[in-house]
Amino acid sequence: MSKRTRIRFIINPTSGTNSRVDVAARIREHLDERKYVHDIMYTTHAGHAPELAHQAANEGIEVVVAVGGDGTVNEVARGLLKTETALAILPKGSGNGLARHLKIPMALEGAMRVINQRNVITIDSGEINQHPFFTTAGIGFDAYISSVFAGNKKRGLQTYVELVMKEVLSYKHLPVKASINGKSLETDCYVMAFANAAQYGNNAYIAPTADIQDGLLDVCLVRRLDLVKALNLSYCMLTKQLANPDSAEYFKTERVTVQTEEDIMYHADGEYLGKAREFEVKMVPLSLKVLVP
Ligand SMILES: Nc1ncnc2c1ncn2[C@@H]1O[C@H](COP(=O)(O)OP(=O)(O)OP(=O)(O)O)[C@@H](O)[C@H]1O
C-alpha cells in the first residue's frame, strides 16, 4: 500500500453566505481515506490562517486546504510560499478567482475529487509592496471598491455588483508615473490591475491572456473611464476578451513601479491594504505548489 499523504483543512468559519452547511462532515464524507490522513482546524480571527498554514508546513504536512473565499486562499497560500507543502482549495466565497482560474470545481464534491487526485503543479505568485497575491492586485478603482466592500455588512456577488454600478462613474482617475518593462509612462490612472491569474473572480476577466506559470505579470491599465468605455470593458471582461485599446491597455512584464503625488488605494486579492504613493509590483516565479484537476 502506498504511503498516505498528510492533509490539513483550514476552515474560515465566517466565509461564504451559507453558514448552515457542516463543512467538516462533508469533507469527511468525500475524502479518500486510503490516500490521506487528515485533520481540520478553524481560524479564529482575520490573519490567523497564514500562521496555521506556516505551522502545517513546518510540521511537514504535505497538503493544506484553504476552505473559504479568496481572502482565506490568500492567507493560507502566504503561509505556504516557497515551502514543499501544496495548497488545495475548497471554494466557499463569492468570487473564488484562483479556484476558477485553476479550473477547480465550485461544488464541494468536485473540489474534493481534485484533492483526491493528488495532482500537483507549481505556480507563480506576485508581490505588491512586498504583500503577496495570487490572483490580482491593483491600484485605483478596484482597490477603492475593496475598501468600501470591506466595511459592508452585506457580502456576496449582488452586493458587489451594486456597489460597482453605484461608484463606477463617480470615481476619479489620478496622474501617475509608471515604469513597465523599463519604459517610463506618465499617464492618468483610473485603475491599474496586476494579474497573476486571468480573472478577479466570478469569471470577470481583467487579463484574459494571463498564464499563471509564465513568470510574468499581466498589467491592465485603464487611463480614464466614461460610460462607453465602461460598457466596452465590462462586456469584454465577462466574455474573456481584450478590451479595445481606447478602453484599456495591456502589458506583460516581470516588474512594475508606480509613483503618484497623491495617495492612491491598493489591494491584493481583493483585500484592501491602504494607501501609498510608491509601488513596486513584481512576480515571484514558481513559488507555490497547488493541487489542480
Ligand atoms: N475566524 C475569523 N473571523 C473573522 N474573520 C476571519 C476569520 N478567519 C478569516 N477571517 C477573514 O475573513 C476574510 C474574508 O474571508 P474570505 O474572502 O475567505 O470569505 P468571503 O469574504 O466570504 O469570500 P469572498 O471574498 O469571495 O466574498 C479574510 O480576509 C480573513 O482575513
Automatic annotation (TrEMBL):
The keyword Metal-binding appears for this protein: yes
Database matches in Pfam families: DAGK_cat, YegS_C
Range of residues in the leader sequence: none
Cofactor(s) required, per the database record: Mg(2+)
Keywords: ATP-binding, Kinase, Lipid biosynthesis, Lipid metabolism, Magnesium, Metal-binding, Nucleotide-binding, Phospholipid biosynthesis, Phospholipid metabolism, Transferase
Gene Ontology molecular-function annotations: kinase activity
UniProt keyword Kinase present: yes
InterPro entries named in the record: ATP-NAD_kinase_N, Diacylglycerol/lipid_kinase, Diacylglycerol_kinase_cat_dom, Lipid_Phosphate_FormReg, NAD/diacylglycerol_kinase_sf, YegS/DAGK_C
SUPFAM superfamilies: NAD kinase/diacylglycerol kinase-like (SSF111331)
Domain DAGKc: 2-132
NCBIfam families: YegS/Rv2252/BmrU family lipid kinase
Name the record gives this protein: Diacylglycerol kinase family lipid kinase
